[in-house]
Every structure is written in C-alpha cells, then in structure tokens.
Amino acid sequence: MAAEVGYFTNTENGYVPAKLAHHSTGTQPLRLLRFIVNHVIPDTVKFLVQLVPLLLSGLVGLVLPTKRKSIRDHIALVTGGANGLGRALCLRLAQEGCHVAVVDIDQAGAQRTVEDVRKLGVKAEAFLADIANYEAVERLRLDVETKLGPVDVLVNNAGLLAILSLTEGRASDLERIVNVNLLSHFWTIRAFMPGMITRHRGHIVGIASIAAYFPVGRFIPYTVTKYAVRALMESLNSELRMDGLENAIHTTCVYPALIATRQQFMDMLDKLNFLKRFYVFTPEQVAEQIVSGMVSNKREVFVPNIMALLSKQFECLPASLRHLLVSCVMRGKIPKLTTIRTFIDGMKQRQRGYILAVSSILGCIPMPRTISYVATKFAVRGMMQALEREIAIDGFKETIFPATLFPTFIATRKELVDMLNELSLDEKLTILTPEAVADTAVEGMLRGYTQIFATPFFIRLFVSLIELLPNALTNLLIETTMGHLPTLMERSSKKEC
C-alpha cells in the first residue's frame, strides 16, 4: 500500500503536506475550492468533450476491420537481425515488400539472413555495428543510406537476456546489458528519426518484454531495461502527438512472453518443468504478430494478446497480492535458476534493513519532452519491484524493506520553481520542499510501504487511472490535465541553450 497524503498547504517554508505543517491554515478549504474551480472542472469538461470522437472511433473499429497500411518498398532496419526473433522479423518484413538492413555483431549470421531475405525478391544488406555506441550508429546510418536508402521502419530488437542479480557478474556485464538493451534504442532513434520527420513518414518498433509489467527476481538488470524501453516508447509516442506527427510517424512497443530463441535458456526451463506450464512462442509466431500490429499502427503488441489485459490489472494489485500471485505461478522455481551474491549480505546477516530508491511521479506517467528522464525513472521503478520479488524469494520479506519514492516537483532549482509559478502550474503539480519529501519518505519507510507517493491524493488517483486505462484514453487524460507541461519543458530547454 502506498503512503498517501491528503492535500498540500503553503507555509512560510514552502509547500509541505498538510499533516506535516506545524500550524493550521484557514485558507486550505479556499485553496482546495479554487483548485477545483480552476483546474478540475475545466480539465474534466475538456476530457469529456475530446472523449466523444475517441469513443466513436473505437466503436467503428469494433465493427469494421482495421485498415492495414502498405510498407512495400520501404527500407526497414532490424537490429539483432542475425538470429532468433530478429531474423524472423527480417523475413516477415521482406514478405511485406520491405528492403531490409540486417544489423548485428554476428556478421556470418547476418549474411545468412540477408541471403534468405533476397530470395523473397527484395534488396537486403548486412551491416556490422555495435549499436551500443552512438558514433557507430551514426556511421551505420550513413552506410545504410548509401547502400539501401533512408530508413522508414526502425526495429530495435537487439538485446541481452541475463539471469543475473544486481551484484552478480562483473560491473562491465551490467553496463553492457544496459547499453545494448536500452541505450541502443536512444542512439538509433536519435540517428534515424530526424530523417523520418523530414520525409513525414516512418515507424519505430521497440521490443520490450512482458517483464516490463511483471518484474521477476534474478532478472533485475534485464527487467530494469525493459521497464525503461516501455517508458521510452510511451513518451516518444506522446511527443510525436504533441508535435503533430502522430499520423506520419508511428510507434509500436512489443511485450512478448517466452520465445524459443536461446537454446541454453530453454533447456534450463525444461529441466525445471516450466515448459509444461507455460506456452513458448516460436520467433516466427511473434514476428507475425509484431508486423501485423505494426501495419495496423497499433501502439502496443502483447504476445499472447491476453497479457494486455492481465498486465494492466497486475500493476494495480497491492504488493502482497502481487507477491502471492508470482509465488503461486512460479511455484518456487526461480531460486533454482541461479545462486545470488547480493550487496545486502550485511542486512541479511543482521536480519534488518531498509533500501530506498528515489524515482519520480514521472516514473508512473510517461510525459513528452522528458523522454530520457522518464525512461530512467521507470527503470528505477522496475528495478525496485524486481528487487522486492528477489528479497521475498530469499525469505527476507519480513526483515528487509525495499521502497520506491515517487515525488512531484521538489523546490531544489529556483529557475524551475519560477517557471512553474509563471505558468500557474504550482497549484496543479504541487511544489514540495526537500524537507517535506524527506519526512514523507522516512515515514513511509518506517511504516513498511513499498511505494511512497510524496504527492497529493488526486495525483495518486490520476496515476491509478492511467495504469488502468487503454493507451488512447491515457494520452487524452495526460493532454487535458498536463497540457502546459510541454511549454514548460520547451522554455527550460531554450533557457539552458
């Protein structure tokens, strides 16, 4: 259960939670009424008005089949295209008439994929590139444009699946996982999206994982990166809408479950009887669903489809129920996958400990103009939820308490506070003093909360709505209630320049 506070009041020291203020104020009811009149009512009316065409569009979609777009003769670039899902995607895109750039560090495998793609009557080239390096990605862009042409379809598929806890392996192993699984998405989007904007045409596909909704212990680095990819793609989509490019450049984020791509991993699951209880998809099955969703301009593709519903519901469950559900489904198998050497050995020996990580309210709300920040804060959220699972697996749920803090704006930068005041966002977003946030964090830790929201109640309610609603409604809700925030970010960027 999250630590929730009612409404924030303004004292001589700044905005603090009402229950932490050292004196009562007679103006709070007036401020609350003003907030309702100035913000809640107008935003609600705006939301309902814009909801009507969205609902009509949804009803039409239920009756009429979704129109599929043509990507024939488009240039598609697939990272990690030498083997597994990447190879299957290259072949499936070729069947749609795409010319394919196969990118991988496995040059021999990439060349084999190219030869098979060419048999389908399209052009294809293999490119050797370390996509975790930005300079290498820029060179890749120039090379692809010279040999095939400008990229219209970017598929960020390359990734490393590591059964690894936070302190297992070398530090360089963790760094490599983050670089390949996450930073490569930043670099390729940064390199190829400007051309898409210029041509007013493009599609960006990000391969995340169902782990972006169901964090599991023993896979913490992997889970962190997939949470971040989820946030990256959601924020990117919102930013494209804001820039009026939603009909020109589309995004699709993919959340697959188990895929039969790594034989060693599949053998391990088979020995633990996982394969008798969970359906494993072939790369070709997943590629079919991805491309089908892409040509229908779907923002999200879950494999299997039922996970779209289950994932939203799972995130809204209390932590205790999430633990129980994971324990029942996994049946204690996860501890057998690997041994663990954790940084919390001392806490385990003493049978006590608290771990607090500071995320942000933007770790729950994917906002545009803050893509990098949002991705990292989603990653913190995913890391702590996976760590929470791991601590429970190891039997320390009652003695070691991980917690994640989700504050709104904190009054640490005068320029930011001045901008919020200038845009009249100080009441809507709530500015907190560092001391107030610290008090809320410590209080939440001592109460054993796993999620601590240093926010007014209505923002916590807003977050709950976002996690339950479909993406189209989520976008509308964010746009109607946070419409001024993009202006704030643009002004901040201009001042920094």
Give a verbal description of the structure.
It is a multi-pass membrane protein. GO terms for molecular function: all-trans-retinol dehydrogenase (NADP+) activity. Catalyzes the reduction of all-trans-retinal to all-trans-retinol in the presence of NADPH. It holds the Pfam family adh_short. This is Short-chain dehydrogenase/reductase 3. With 497 residues, the chain is an alpha/beta fold. It has a domain at 159-485: Rossmann fold, CATH 3.40.50. It is 52% helix and 14% strand. It has helices at 28-63, 84-95, 107-118, 134-147, 171-199, 220-242, 263-271, 283-295, 307-315, 319-330, 345-350, 371-393, 414-422, 426-429, 434-446, 457-468, 471-481, 485-496; strands spanning 8-11, 14-17, 75-79, 99-104, 124-128, 153-156, 202-207, 249-256, 300-303, 353-358, 400-407, 409-410, 431-432, 451-454. α2 (84-95) crosses α8, α4 (134-147) packs across α5 (171-199) and α5 packs parallel to α6 (220-242). The longest helix is centred in the N-terminal third of the chain and has 36 residues, at 28-63. The two termini are 42 Å apart.
